[in-house]
Amino acid sequence: MTTATVSRWDRFRESFFWYSFKRDKVAIASFLVLLAMVLAAVFAPLLAPADPYDLAQINIMNSELPPVGLDGADPAFPLGTDAQGRDLLSTILYGTRVSLMIGFGAVVLQAALGILFGLLAGYLGGKVDAILMRIADVQLSFSTLMVAIIVGAVFKASFGNLMFGEIAIYMLIFIIGVAEWPQIARTVRASVLAEKKKEYVDAAKVMGFGTPRIMFRHILPNTLSPIFVIATVQIANAIISEAALSFLGLGMPETQPSLGSLIKSGFDYIQSGSWWITLIPGLVLVVLVLVINLLGDWLRDVMNPRLYKG
Amino acid sequence: MTSPLVSIRGLEKRFDLSGSFLEQLRFEGGRLRRKQEAVHAINGVNLEVQKGEALCVVGESGCGKSTVARTVMGLLSPSAGEIHYGGQRIDNLEGKAALPYRRKMQMIFQNPYASLNPRMTIQQTLEEPIRFHHPDWSPVQVRDKIHEVMHSVGIDPDWGSRFGHEFSGGQRQRIAIARALAVDPEFIVADEPISALDVSIQAQVLNLLMDAQESRGLTYLFITHDLAVVEHFGTRVAVMYLGRVCELADTKTLFAMPRHPYTQALLSAIPKLEDDRPNHIRLQGEVPTPVNLPSGCVFHGRCPYANERCRQEVPQLIATDGGAQVACHAVEEGRL
Amino acid sequence: MALLEVKNLDVRFAVRGGDLTALRRISFSLDKGERLGLVGESGAGKSVAAFSILNLIAKPGYIAGGQILFEGKDLAAMSERELRKIRGNRIAMIFQDPMMTLNPVLTIGTQMVEAILAHRKISKKEARAIALDRLQKVQIPSPEKRLDQYPHELSGGMRQRVIIAIALLLDPEIIIADEPTTALDVTIQAEIMDLLLNLCEQENVALMLITHDLGVVSQVTQRMLVMYSGRIIEQGPTREIINDARHPYTQGLINALPQMGEPGARLFQIPGSMPSLKNVPSGCPFHPRCNFATDQCKRAMPEYVRSGNVDVACYEVANLIEQEKRMQEAES
């Protein structure tokens, strides 16, 4: 067993993937930044100086304190505080956590739906393909935001604000996941169409293997590279969608802020000079989305089959 | 003659080119009409494969030889006609009923670079079919079987944990053969199994196929465009042109005395080592597309012996005194 | 002086982990009107050799040493501008896939006229007349009509005829044909080869034919080179090599052909396969597959020895020649 794991690790270290990663400074930097942000978000309860969800820790007297280095700053709040007196560093750590959870969660849902429908459409073809792809077209012709606004408004109206706060994160994952599955389904379908013409699929058919086995065990593993690339980009898109929804007040409530709702909550105070409440979470969001997209670009270059096999 | 192992009866296969109903509508001559186009890949092929023989099907690209192979294996369903295996009709079987034949009939493909799943190790590639067809076997039995087939195709059993792309074309084709042999088939369809390989590797793979035939009592349906290989490998030969069999004979008979004008041209076109110049029978024109089949004998447009009857009437395979079956009016009438 | 003389040509590929040697010390010559066959299996470097003659090697490949003398001038040292005057004009090339040469969105006529005007200062009308003449030479039915057709309207065999016509446009001295019939059916292949051979004879054009098919080589060429792993291991008159190959690899290649075997019997087979450029064996690259290999073969690449009119790089052959000499001396 150990020899197998060692050889797998060795194989990885000798692979083109690892080789091109080592040589690409942008990829390394992006990966490190993302890793740091993910770790900070995951361990937010340990790292954050305060718990922004705990109302008892908040003192309204501390509201709108500027970050360290500006006049009137309090060293207990390195990035300053927001309008309610919450420590901005802590809220950003927690907010990143919420944003990442929604991003990953939505993409897992997208991938599950997209892979299933893409495989079915591509492999079975004919009517199944026509129906699934038309559904995908219809789905794509609604903008994600529009669907989310409608669903969000309905949810909010029917569950009330308090209840809505509790289910908001699941609702956002659901909305963004369902709205964007056609992106992945199309990618999967396109590579299934290319793969199913190859002789190894015929060989599996000749063996008498059933359709599900051929689809999931033989074809799916060969379509993973493009899925991986598009999933990365979709995480960034999901985080942006969530931020946009939250900014519009249809996303995470201010009691459990995501990066988007933090930006929104500070937006009202820009005129009064407290720009940091909006700007700092905004920067964090930009950096987060940027590094994910840079990694996605790099992945696409590496996994381009023509370059990869050469 | 004993009953054949595989028999192909009146096989036809058309591939529809015209798409859905809406796409078939054409505006022609001022009115809308429905136009259907199809590629006539096979147009009435009858072949019988006897147990233990290697029946070679030769022809140039587009003659339908690969379609015959794929239809026999059930990868394509025939537009008309039947496939029988050991007396049982198999082209209409589905699901569980087809499984026993999936084990008895196996296929080797042309392109060893595409016929192995790139995400599976050699071990997984060989193990899956064995486990699938013998769910009751113990792990030891499965392992022994894998070792046995790997050994018999000349692949080191220690290579099991490697992936297909780590091997050369010849080695991959050996692995593909091992996969086919792993389920102990009786009948193997080999679709151009050596044409993607280098000369020195072709010989290795041909020898391997012959060894397997001898030691396992296999029956082959061997598809190829290379007549030199046929002469070496085949028991009998069927020459195909535009979806029809134009000559069917014992290999010796066919090479000693080819009767059909197309067979003659094909034989003369093989570049031979003893030639100092190309000396081949010149044919007029080129192979017509299988979309609009010529009337009568499909070969008449290129045949130097064609007459009015050839343009009108489709020739049937007729036994000649030499032992060959030839579909040619000129041969039948004694003009040739 | 030979029309084309390649001397000690080295071609390498710069890849990660250092250079790979694709061609090592390739030397051969081509006389006016001569037909030379370049034989080898995939990975032997025969296509690289063809491309490097016109200095057309794509990155990461580069010519690392040696000379390519065309009428005494070194193509390897020429500027791109000077090379362009020779490519297509004095030395023409025919590829395996006609679509590599033909532009799918231009008519055959336009492409042929453009090719002529790139090298000759004549009117379009005159150029079109030349194009028509060449299409007639390659025996294309209704050549006038073809001039206005697009490549996709022609069949594979017809396209390859057009390619030959394009190669002939500017009366080149040399045609390099890289597997020109591999993608075609046997009957079409025979016709194209016949045509190419006749044209080269009529026009006194030298032909360098790259192929893996020994049958074609024996039908078409006068001299041949056998390549293995980037080296020429045997060269000489085609007939002499085909009838009596010296090098164990060439012997194996010929004997492995189904037409050489008894029907039903096992074919002669060379064990193993061509090494990849990444791990070329030391010494004679063929030694791991060779029945005659000795320690000497593992140490250094053998020098060429002459046997009859054939040059062979093989210690075993050298030893046999040596033995023969000694026997003759002993007799006298």
UniProtKB/TrEMBL annotation, chain A:
Keywords: Cell membrane, Membrane, Transmembrane, Transmembrane helix, Transport. The lineage of its organism: Bacteria, Pseudomonadati, Pseudomonadota, Gammaproteobacteria, Pseudomonadales. Residues 96-296 form the ABC transmembrane type-1 domain. One of its GO terms (cellular component) is plasma membrane. Its main location: membrane. It comes from Marinobacter vinifirmus. Gene3D superfamilies: MetI-like. This is ABC transporter permease. The chain crosses the membrane at residues 26-48, 98-123, 135-155, 161-179, 227-253, 273-296. PROSITE patterns: ABC_TM1. Pfam families: BPD_transp_1, OppC_N. It is found in: Cell membrane. GO terms for biological process: transmembrane transport. Belongs to the binding-protein-dependent transport system permease family. The keyword Amino-acid biosynthesis does not apply. It is a multi-pass membrane protein.
TrEMBL record, chain B:
InterPro entries: AAA+_ATPase (IPR003593), ABC_transp_ATP-bind (IPR050319), ABC_transporter-like_ATP-bd (IPR003439), ABC_transporter-like_CS (IPR017871), Oligopep_ABC_C (IPR013563), P-loop_NTPase (IPR027417). NCBIfam families: oligo_HPY. Residues 25-267 form the ABC transporter domain. It comes from Marinobacter nauticus. PROSITE patterns: ABC_TRANSPORTER_1, ABC_TRANSPORTER_2. This is ABC-type dipeptide transporter. The complex is composed of two ATP-binding proteins (DppD and DppF), two transmembrane proteins (DppB and DppC) and a solute-binding protein (DppA1-A5). Five orthologous SBPs (DppA1-A5) are present in P.aeruginosa, which increases the substrate specificity of the DppBCDF transporter. GO terms for biological process: peptide transport; transmembrane transport. Belongs to the ABC transporter superfamily. One of its GO terms (molecular function) is ATP binding. Keywords: ATP-binding, Nucleotide-binding, Transport. Its EC number is 7.4.2.9. Part of the ABC transporter DppABCDF involved in the uptake of various di/tripeptides. Is also involved in the uptake of phaseolotoxin, a toxic tripeptide inhibiting the enzyme ornithine carbamoyltransferase. Responsible for energy coupling to the transport system. It is an enzyme of class 7 (translocase). SUPFAM superfamilies: P-loop containing nucleoside triphosphate hydrolases (SSF52540). It catalyses: a dipeptide(out) + ATP + H2O = a dipeptide(in) + ADP + phosphate + H(+). It comes from the Bacteria.
